[in-house]
Amino acid sequence: MKIAVIADSHDNMNAIRRAVRFLNARNVKLLIHTGDIVAPFAAREFMFFSGRIFAVYGNNDGEKKGLKDVLADIDGPPRVLEVAGRKLLVAHSVDEIRENCPEKRPDAVICGHTHAVEISTAYEQDLSDLLDDDCLFLNPGELCGYLSDRTTLALLELDDLKAEIVEI
């Protein structure tokens, strides 16, 4: 099963629309957003995605009630999602996992916050005291493109835990 991972969309409406069109065209059925959607009007654009959406709040998601009114399955980080037999630990930042790690043996850790693309391991993230060393760590970069001038998302194949970064 292939899922999409998005981080840090920061109200960039054009990037959100492009991402949703891209994912719908590829028949992706699940989207995980790691936070910093920012405003409910931007969250409404994600409702055009034809699959299911899971999300966590980021540090710039101040209007939590408004976001929850739009996205029913948004919650505080970190949260554990079980998808296609895989345990995914989702947070906005790595610090949230260091402060409260609810799952000691996830198959993958998915974060955003830094706006930097990263595919590595828990060991390389200095999380090996909390997680298995070879646990996949995925940061899809930033959908907004404000810091890196790249609008990116990740496609994660859950069967073999291989991630692909896509620039849209």
Tags for this entry?
single chain, 168 residues, alpha/beta, Purple Acid Phosphatase, chain A, domain 2, 11 strands
Structure notes:
The strands form two sheets. Strands 4-3-2-1-10-11 form a six-stranded mixed beta sheet, with no helix packed on it. A five-stranded mixed beta sheet has the order 5-6-7-9-8, with no helix packed on it. It is built from four helices and eleven strands, in the order βαβαβαβββαβββββ. It has one domain: Metallo-dependent phosphatases (Purple Acid Phosphatase, chain A, domain 2, 4-Layer Sandwich), CATH 3.60.21.10. It is of the alpha/beta class and 168 residues long. It is globular and about 40 Å long.
Topology:
Layout lengths: L1 E5 L6 H13 L4 E4 L6 H7 L5 E5 L7 H7 L3 E2 L3 E5 L2 E5 L3 H6 L8 E3 L6 E5 L14 E5 L11 E6 L4 E6 L1
Parallel strand pairs: 1-2, 2-3, 3-4, 6-7, 7-9
Antiparallel strand pairs: 1-10, 5-6, 8-9, 10-11
